[in-house]
Amino acid sequence: MLKNQSQFYVKNCWYKGVSKNIDMIKRLPKEIGIAQELRNVGIYYFPEESNMNKGKAILFGPMDTPYEYIPLEFSFEFPTDYPYVPPKVNYLTNDGYTRFHPNFYVEGKVCLSILGTYSGPKWASSLNLSSVLLSLYSLLTRNPLQHEPIYEKANEMLPKCLQYSEFVEHNLVQLFFRLYNTYKKVDDEEFQTILESNKQLLMSKVIKKAQEQETLYTVLPYAMSGSTRWKLLAKNFL
């Protein structure tokens, strides 16, 4: 697979003018191959067949977080002067309203220092595709509001932190079932096996949480408001 990718990429770079950056030509196919090793933690990267400068990543949220079992999708675009500048990354798993993470904006912006979109350690040519993927994955924590500077020392049981996590979890599960048929179009057998397994786990979660009372949230950040309606979610999707 990697050999074919490399041959295709070099051909397109030199004969179709995608890039004449020899470092990019040498590195990117290798980085894409190495990124496949991250599948064992639930990180999948798929380059575009017609242009390896672009691709998408799907990260399955880690256990014991509001993101568990949920596939979160990001688009990647590698500039022609990569690896001397970072790739451009956008967050795609959105419902048009919920701020699912302090670092992921509704309009798709991803705040990450190595991408040049946030304060902190900057991009270096020694970093690579896997560095970005693992950095994104590390943001998916049990108390995501801690990634907002004013809440970085806040306990997860603080009402605003707790309500934010619960609201994010509910809306992500709801979004998952809405987008499920879209995820089914991903042409990758291993991905589909994990997707189906996670669907069953999410169905069990919904059934369990449907026993809880509807909760109205009054202290949500980012000017959000709303409630969790697990019973209605179960009725609509199960």
Automatic annotation (TrEMBL):
Keyword annotations from UniProtKB, A to Z: Apoptosis, ATP-binding, Cytoplasm, Nucleotide-binding, Transferase, Ubl conjugation pathway
Membrane-spanning segments: none
Entry's Gene Ontology BP terms: apoptotic process; negative regulation of apoptotic process
Subcellular location field: Cytoplasm
Domain UBC core: 23-182
SMART domains recorded: UBCc
GO cellular component: cytoplasm; nucleus
Main localization, broad class: cytoplasm
GO terms, molecular function: ATP binding; cysteine-type endopeptidase inhibitor activity; transferase activity
InterPro entries (UniProt xref): UBC, UBQ-conjugating_enzyme/RWD
Pfam family membership, one: UQ_con
Protein name: Ubiquitin-conjugating enzyme E2 Z
Source organism per UniProt: viral metagenome
